[in-house]
Structure formats: structure tokens, C-alpha cells
Design brief:
Length: 494
Amino acid sequence: MMRKIVKTSALATVLVASGCVTPPANQTDKLEVKTPMAWTATGAGEAIAAPVADTGWVNDFDDSLLPQLVAEAIEHNYDLQASAARLEAARAVATISGADRFPQISGRLAGDRRTRSGTSGFAITSNRSDNFNLSLSMNWEVDVWGKLRAAHKASIGDWQAAQEDYRAARLSLAAQTAKAWFDVLEADLQVRLASETLKSFESNLSIIEQRFRSGLSKALDVRLTRANVAGARSSLQFRYRQRDGSTRSMETLLGRYPAHQVQAATDLPALTQGVPAGLPSDLLHRRPDIVAAERRFAASGMRLKESRKNMLPSLSLTAGGGTSTDEFDELLNTDFKVWNLGANLAQPIFQGRRLKANAQRFNALRDRALADYASSALTAFREVETALAAEKFLADQEEALQTAAEESIEAEQLAWDAYQSGLDNIITVLEAQRRSFDSQRQHLQIINQRLQNRINLYLALGGNFNTEETVEEKVAVAAAEPADGTPNKQIEDG
């Protein structure tokens, strides 16, 4: 019952060129869910066509250091190196899986010497014999039903999925590096703001203490201002600690020792490109996690096919030939040749339902892979829609906080002027100062949040908004495996 629900429910699909998602063509079961041809949460600008995968989104930020930092992280990050090693291991497994489809040939050179002693009357006799063998043997399971080919295709699918996992790891690392860099920049700006605020509070305290000595201010004013200065000093130390942690995290991503030596730029960068309207939903074709899920689904189908073929007879051929002689220098003499030929046909009869249960297991695993495939698509849609909607929310929020910061700064100055003129009390000044500091701090935070959200959008789309195919992408497409899992010549010859 559960399987029927999975196969007929409105789960997401991955291929959306026609407005719905369908699994690979070589699978008979299909899931469908209607998806929009464009995102429901859109931005401003002209509509664009669906691009191929692109990693040039780092250039959409007005920051000359960011591309260098991302390149350094990709070259030196140890987690990415581990992902590359896993990719190479998956490739080796794919090569190994193809070896069973070909004859297994081995050569053998052997020699032995035997001595036998005995007695004959009062005499002791000794006989010695030599034997040398040179042979070549072959064993080959003929893939009559395509069982071995299905197993090889399954391994190829796993390798393709590993390739996409590596692409996803690269994209994720680039995004983490950019986010960490912007966190460092914000932390440094927060330190500057806290430091300037502390200096301003200390200057105000000096004036209030002088007014207190002149009898123009109350002791309460001094106490409250001193408390304000102490709070600003504590806030500055918190910002120092935050900057220190952000910097060391950044250095770890770059593969450096976390020595707190990354120098921040002067300001957070601006976005050089807005979000185009009408981004087509088939941008998700390039998301590596979705492609990886599709490849794993295809591989699971091949393994199901292999498990069913295991119930059929298997045909094996064996052959051997060589020479056998008691003289080493006659090993190549064909007069001493030996040879054999053999064929073996085996049919499983009873294995305690092992083969049938194994097929049922792989059928369940294919259903799970199909559900994972659909879930990845729906997750991708959610991430893109959420990031697109957040673009406008955050832009409006930044505008409001910028106005709040500007007005709070002016209000702080007016409150201070009124206090010095004796027209207002210290409470109003302290409240104005708090509002001014908080609004400026929140304004810096929202700028960083907009940058972080744009990175989330690039991650969700699998790249930037450009329609041009980069040289790196052309090379990747040329080297990619066919969608049906057919092995390329390099793997075939392995």
C-alpha cells in the first residue's frame, strides 16, 4: 500500500522542461507533479532564458578579493580534497565493475624437483625427477542476459553521482567562503562602530563629569553615563571576540592555520546585478544535488535489473593451454603441449528464497531512490522560492533600517544639545544613544544578510543568472557520461 502511495502521490520531479518532472526514460514507474514555468516569487528586471550550470556568481559582488579567496579555498581546502578522493574511488569502482564483462586471463610458470630414496638389499638408491609447466588460462562468464552490463551501468551511475557530489562540494565551499568573508567584513565594521560609540560615550562622560564638578549636572547623570560607557566597553570586547572567531573560521576554510591574520576590506561589497524577473524553473537542471539524485535513481534501476537476471542460468567458458616437460629449456617446445576446453551452464534451483528476496530488496531501494529524487526537487523549489522572496523583504528592511539609522543619529545629537542646554534630562540622551547604536548595528547586519541571501539564491539555482556557457562548463559537459549510463571508452577499456 505504501509503495502505491509513493508511486501515485504528487511528489516533485526533477526534469521540468515541459512543466512537470519525469524520472529517467529507462524506468517504467513515473512520478509527476505540476510545476510553474517561472518562479512565483520574482524580482525586477527582464526575463532570461534557462542557463547551464555556472560558477561565476562570485563576480556579482563588488569585491575584488572574493574571487581570489574562493580560488584559494578550492585549491587548499581539505574537505574538498577528501571529496575529490571519494570521486576518484568511485571512478575506480566503476572501472572494476566493468572487468567482469571480459575474459579473465592469467599465466602460470611452475617447476618442482622431487627426490625419492630407498633400499635394495644392502644398497641405498635415490631417484630424482624434475617437472616444469608453462600455462595460460582463461575464464569468461558470457553475459547472455545483460546481468554484468547492468551491474557495470549501476557503478557508472554511482560514479556520475559522485561527480555531482564533488560539484556540489565545490559550490558549497565557494558559498561558505563568500559567507565567511562577508561575516569577517561585518564583524570588522561592527568593531569600528562599537569603538566609535565607546569614544563618543567617553567624551560625553568627560563633559558630564566636568558639569557635575561645576554643579550643572547631577550625580545620577554621572552614574548613568558611566554605566553607559561600561556597557559600550563590554560591547566592544564582544565585537572583538566575534571578529576573532569569524577570521579564524575563514582561515580554516582557506586551508590556512587559524592565526587571525586575514585583513578585512574597508566595507561590505555592493551587489552589481539585480534578480531578473521570470527566472525559469528549469534552472534546476544544473543543480548538482538533483542530478546526483537522478543518477542514483538510475543506478538503483540497474541494480534491480541485475538482481532479476541472477535468477537466470549463467554460462561460463574456460580454456587453458601450455607445456609440461622435465627439461626447463623445452618449455617452449610444442611437442610437450597440454590444453583443455570447458563450458559450464549453471541454473539456481533452490536458495531459500534468497534471490527473490534480493530482487525485492533492490526494488524497495529503487522506490526509496525515487522518493529521494522527488524530495530533492521539492527542496530545491522551496529554497529558490524562499531566497527570491527574501530578496525583496531584505531590500525593504535595509531601506527602513538605513532611514532609522540616519534619524537616530540626528536624534542623538538633538538630545545631547537639549541636555547641555538644560532642556532635557540624561535619560533622554541615553535612550537616544542606545537607539542610534542599535539602528546602526542592525543596518550593518541587514546588509550582510542581503549578501548572504544572494549567496543562498545562487546555491539554490546551482549558479548565477548568466545565459553564457563558460569554458569550464563546456569541458565538463564534453566529459560527462551519457544520461542513460552508457560507459565511456576510458571506463570501458579499464
